[in-house]
TrEMBL record:
Region (Disordered): 177-199
Protein name: DUF1254 domain-containing protein
Pfam families referenced in this protein's UniProt entry, alphabetically: DUF1254 (PF06863)
Domain of life: Bacteria
Keyword terms, alphabetized: Membrane, Transmembrane, Transmembrane helix
InterPro entries, per database record: DUF1254
Amino acid sequence: MSLTRVAYVLAVGLVLAGLVHIGSLLGVPRFATQGPFERLAELGPEWRFIALADEGDAANLLPFRDPAFVTAACRYDLTDGPIAVEAVLPSTYGAISVHNRTGQPFYALTDRAAADGRVRLTILAQDDVAAAEQEDLAEERPKIRIASPTMTGFVLVRLFVAGESARPAMRDLAAAATCAKTTASPPPSSEADPAPVSP
């Protein structure tokens, strides 16, 4: 290869490296000033699950996206009381995880823990746990109660996509999960121990 050719290849490589570097620098302020909770606000309001896009900027609102899964997110605020979460987790593999405001997961479970393929849980503020243990409501209530370390956070439902033809159905199923305020606290029971979360 001639010296001219080598110089040309090196020049192109340097230009591409510079563009990548500039692009990453431009993206730093957004990720430095906005945590996962703030970035998910771009999807829509709190109290509802919204499926993340499979491609484009909206697909990268959260780090470490796995294209083999569809993901739906719901932001929550416990200022006005606990929230009830319900989701269907198919046996092909589904998982639900609860995260604090900065994105750190503090509870997770998979379809293996789902009764009849459905998971129901309640998320409470730390200060509400003692009061919840004093209540004895007659109607059926979630059997899993989780104390959130922060007043705000988000819940993720992640469903494995066995094939591209199944992706639309999995997106709809993930988005059909519910995440709503509840006026009733869950029944007395032992505190749910956080399940191990893979890094």
